[in-house]
Each structure stands twice: as structure tokens, then as C-alpha cells.
Amino acid sequence: VNPDSYGDSKSHFFVHWTDSAGDWLMRIGFDSRPYLIGRFPKSLLTSLGDKADNIRLGGFVATRTTQLAPMGSGFLPDNAKSASLSNIQLIDQNGKTSKLDRGQPADMNDRIEHLFCIPD
């Protein structure tokens, strides 16, 4: 997500459930007009129903060439700014936001649980 698109240095995206169709939508942008970047049909996510019991964030970079693809913030691994997420907020069905507390459970790993391929 390119933070320059929103006139600040933050990345913005969110996923929400549509009450009318029951689909899960992923949108980007909060401080500006959000736009749709992905849709997960209700028929694909049958175990979710109308709510999510937990939320997981992750990412990876892949390349078709032998040269490694860039990933991260551009800082070396020993820098405090490498590979970080901050200011994450949850938005409920009423539009109310709540921040994640530092005391809430967090799990970090390097497993690939689901692989999505977007053809070009």
C-alpha cells in the first residue's frame, strides 16, 4: 500500500462485511475516500457468518526472476523501523473505531498459511 496516495506517511486499508450481500470487502484509504481493492464472497468464507472472531495481518514478496524482490521499509534489519505495523484500528459495524491494545494477544511467524496468486 503506497502511503503517498493519501498525502501522509501512513498506509490505510480495511476489510468489512456487507450487510446486504454478506460479502467481505477489502478497501484502502481511511483519511480519504476509500476504494475497493478486493472482495471475498460469502460463499467462499462460510465459516465467518456475519462476523470475524479474529483478524490476522501478513504479507510476503515474490518474484519470477532470480534477483530478490525488495520488501520492508528500506531500513536494515537491526533498525527499529524495519518491518513494522502501527496505529492499527478495528472498525465495527456501526463505524466505531477501537485501537489494538499492547496487551492483546499477538502471534508473529513466517508461515505461509494461504497462498493467493494474482495473474498478470
TrEMBL record:
Q: Which residues form the Neprosin PEP catalytic domain?
A: 1-120
Say which domain of life the source belongs to: Eukaryota
Q: Which residues form a coiled coil?
A: none
Protein name stated in the entry: Neprosin PEP catalytic domain-containing protein
Concerning InterPro entries, the annotation shows: Glutamic_endopeptidase (IPR053168), Neprosin (IPR004314)
